[in-house]
Every structure is written in structure tokens, then in C-alpha cells.
Amino acid sequence: MKTALMVWGASSGAGKSLLATALCRWAAREGLGVAPFKAQNMSNNARVVPLAAHGSDAEVGEIGSAQYFQALAARAAPQVDMNPVLLKPERDTASQVVVQGRVDAALSRMPWRERSARLARAARESFDRMAARHEVLVIEGAGSPAEINLAPQDYVNLGTARWAREIATLQALLVVDIDRGGAFAHLHGTWALLPDDLRTSLAGFVLNKFRGDAALLAPGPDRLQALTGVPVLGVLPMNRDHGLPEEDGLYGAASGPAGGLRVAIVAWPQLSNLDEFQPLAAVASVRWVRSAGDLDGADWIVLPGSKQVSGDLAWLKARGLDAAIVRHARAGRPVLGICGGLQALGALLDDPDGVDGEAHGPLPGLGLLPLATRYAAPKRLRAAPVQFAPLAHPWQALSSRRWPAYEIRCGRTQSIAGAASAATLALHDAEGLPIGWSAAADPGQPDRHNVLGIATHGLFEDAAVLRALFGQQVGTLDATFDGLADFIDTHLGAATLRALFHC
Questions:
Q1: Same domain, 299 and 326
Q2: Judging by beta carbons within 10 Å of its beta carbon (0-12, 13-18, 19+), is residue 234 exposed, middle or buried?
Q3: Which listed residue (134, 186, 457, 491) is catalytic?
Q4: Could you tell me the Gene Ontology terms of the biological process aspect for this record (predicted)?
């Protein structure tokens, strides 16, 4: 590694991931051998990638979605060293710890301060391998580098920066969300709290998500530089339609074209991999729902992935959403369950060992598919193309369609033998294992299999699937990455970017 460019944030949600992705594609277009790195990510948005740079596809692990997309932007093969530590929240006070792609149950049970040294060692190992393989690393920090309460254990922002300085030229950018207000105070305060040995690596500030007349910022940037000695390198306008999945998986109000198909996605508390629905908003009117009333007028209901299915089912039932979903299904309208959503659509969930959360015996699901799920370790990780079986209305557009998919799950789901209404096989994996089923919610409409559940993620990330379902073209990921590179080239400038990358 010759050069490391680090992206710090004045806070979470400042735009680190988007800027790092844009920098990866810009550097790749310049012909640099670039790759992303983030020592630790906290997210339930994950992708399945090889364990090693040139490893077998059979040896796979998990990384945060942000580093997966950054790798694609950099035109580098995604692999686990790009995000060696991934924390997947299971509840407010506990997270599953994934180290170099694999779940570490012992570390998951350990308090953060006690486990941080072990995680730092694993992160350093991965960093050193990445530095040996690539000319340039674009390094994303986490949260803020000014968390002085965490500084002694901070290997993500401070530690990684010091590792980079040992072997290469390091320059850092500090990005702030100016739309939240207090941007100059955030930048000055973060600069003031940076350790002395790293403050000199700060090459510039970036003001992100600006709306309005940039002239109104004056004299703020000049005053800030006078106070810190650090220039404002650029102002990035608000860019809501950048097309990149949100790293933190934020959801909000309805989005997508007015007058299109109305898709309601259940926003349960332990939501996982919700970023896979971002492409759907380009072709349908998508809204995230948390109450039964929010389902009014929905054409489709989608139950997404869940990090803790039994807990999310209890939340669903407490809000009366279960009955509303069942009414919707029995009226013949489409219901789709993905991964944890598939499990919730079934009749029974059994977790005797507490793999998915608190241990429990058989609990009732929504009963819309005659399926039973039993949770057991180890987690199933797989990334491979799958193919739908012939499907009935309203999913017939997916019949026999092949698409890239990935699995991240613990539950093993099977049809219930002798159930009053049988489930129809809808999807199987490369080995022929059933991983998707459909059924009629209303026995009076046996030819209308309006309830569909699949164990795989990534359905709406395939442009051909969206075209088949909605008859509309969608942009490619490559076009999104190029758009982001063009965006920073315009607002930061090619000369500034070349100076940052020393090219």
C-alpha cells in the first residue's frame, strides 16, 4: 500500500459510506489499484462474500453491505478482510459478533471493553493483508473519531489511522451532515478532540447534504480554517436520488413513483437487510409500516428479514398487524416473506437452544404457509444463483426465472406433513434443497397462490426481476457508482481528488 485515504465522520449518518463509495469508484476510474476497508461495522445489512481474496466460493463469510458495495465500486472482488469485524444488533444491549466473516459466540457474550483487544488484533491482521494486496485503501471510520470515552479501545478510527501511518501516506477527510445544523461546531469540536498525532493527517473538511445557496456559508469555511488550519475542500449538495443503499438502513416516509404499485414493508424492530429494498422504490410506491392502519390501501405486503423472529412476531401481534396481514392475504392480495419473513409466515417456530434469541418451544407464526422452522447453529451462509419453479398468479412473472441470491440464516424451514393445505415448492437451491414455498391463503382460490415465502435475499436487487414484475427498466449498480464519482468530481474537483490520492 502506498496511499491510504480515510473518511471520518463528525457523527453517525454524516455520509461516510457514500463518500467512501464515491472515492472508490473515482480512484478505480483513474487506474488505481484501490479497495475499501472498515475495521468494524455495526449493521444488520450484510452480504455473503469469500473468506479470502482468491478463496473458494464454498468458503464464505459475512461483511457489512457498505463494504460490499464499496468493493464493487472499486472494481475489487469483495472478501471478508474488507470488514473484519461486523456487529449485528439483536436487541438494544446485545449484538452478534462476526469476526473475519464468521460468528464468534464467545465474543458475542463478552462485554465490549473486554473483547475490544481481541477484535483489534483480528482487524489488524485483515488490515495488513489488505495493505499488502492493494496500492490504495479507502478506509471508512465508524461513528466519530472524537469519542474520547472510547479512545483507548478505538481501533476503528484511531487505531486504523495509526496502522496506516506506519506503512503509507495517510490523509483523512472529516465529513459532516450540514442539514442537521451545527456543522461548523461539529467540525471544530471533532478537530479539537482528535489526538495530537493524528490531527496532522486531517487534509480537509467536507460539508455534506447542503441545501440552498452555497454563498450563504460565507464566511464560515474561512473562519473554520483560521481556527483549525484545515480547509473546507468541498460542499456536497443534498443528493437523495444517488441510488446507493443506505449503509445504516434508514427507513422513513413513502418513496417511489406516485400511482405505482403500493408496497407496504413491515418495519419490525429487529429488521435486517432492509437495504435490499432500495431498488424496489424505483418502480413501486414503497412505505414502511408499523401499525395496522398503515396497511390500508396496500397492494402488496412484504415481511422482510429479521434478526430475531420470535421477538418481532410478538411485536407484530401486540400491534394487531398480524390480523391485518392475514385479512389482506385471505382477500387474495399478495404477501411476500423474505428470510425471517418467510419463517414468520409459517405455522410454527421452535428455538429450544435460543439460537434466534430467547429459547422457546414451538410458537405459532402467522399460519399463512404450512411450514415449521427450527433454529439451530451453525448459521447458513451462501451466495449462489437460484431459480424459481413455475409459479401461479400473482407471481407467475417469476416462473422459472434465475437470479443471484444470498442466504444468511439460522432457521431450517420445512413443510408440515399432513397439513390441511399443502405448500407448493417455489424455490430450491443448487443442491435441490427447498428454500421457498407458495400457497393460497383462501382455500376457495386454490389456483391463486398469493402468499410467497423465500429464504434468500437479493430478489429486488436483480434488474431482470424488477423488469419482469413491474415492466420497468432500472439503473445498474455500475451507473450508480459512476454517478457518485461524477458527483464528487464536480463538487470536490479533480485536482483536489488527485492530491488526496497522490496521483
A1: yes
A2: buried
A3: 457
A4: cobalamin biosynthetic process
Which amino acid, one-letter code, is at 25? Answer: R
DSSP state of 468: H
Residue 15 and residue 207 in contact, taking contact as beta carbons nearer than 8 Å = no
CB 2, CB 168: distance < 8 Å: yes
Report yes or no on 255 lying in a domain. Answer: no
Is 188 an annotated catalytic residue? no
User: What is the reported pTM?
Assistant: 0.90
Distance CA 316, CA 332 (A): 21
Secondary element (H or E) of residue 315:
helix 309-318
364, amino acid identity = P
Domain identity same for 422 and 301? yes
User: Is residue 248 very low, low, confident or very high in pLDDT (cuts 50, 70, 90)?
Assistant: low
- Per the structure, the complete domain to which residue 140 belongs is given by 3-243+478-501
Residue 158 sits in the same domain as residue 267: no
Is the pLDDT at 318 greater than 70? The verdict is yes
Report the run of H or E that residue 85 belongs to, with start and end. strand 85-91
Residue with cell 424455490: 427
Same domain, 58 and 202: yes
Rg of the chain on CA atoms, in Å: 23
CA atoms within 13 A of residue 499's CA, in its CB half-sphere? 10
pLDDT in the model for residue 54: 53
- Return the CATH number at 446: 3.40.50.880
User: How far from chain centre, in Å, is Cα 175?
Assistant: 20
Q: What's the mean pLDDT in 467-485?
A: 90
pLDDT tens sequence across 3-17:
999 999 999 889 999
Distance separating alpha carbons of residues 361 and 399, to the nearest angstrom = 36
Report if residue 368 sits inside a domain.
yes
* Residue 317 and residue 360 share a domain: yes
Q: Count of CB atoms within 10 A of residue 57's CB?
A: 12
pLDDT more than 70, % of the chain: 95
445 burial class (0-12, 13-18, 19+ CB within 10 angstroms)?
middle
Residue 69 lies in a domain: yes
Q: Which residue has the cell 472524537?
A: 146
The values of phi and psi at residue 106, to 5°, are -65, -45
Distance CA(33)–CA(98), nearest Å, equals 27
pLDDT at res. 357:
82
Region 313-326 average pLDDT: 96
Same domain, 438 and 483: no
Number of independent structural domains in the chain: 2
Please write the tens of the pLDDT for every residue from 152-175.
Answer: 999 999 999 999 999 999 999 999
> In this structure, are 216 and 298 located in the same domain?
no
Which residue among 339, 410, 449, 491 is the active-site one? 339
Q: Are 218 and 362 within one domain?
A: no
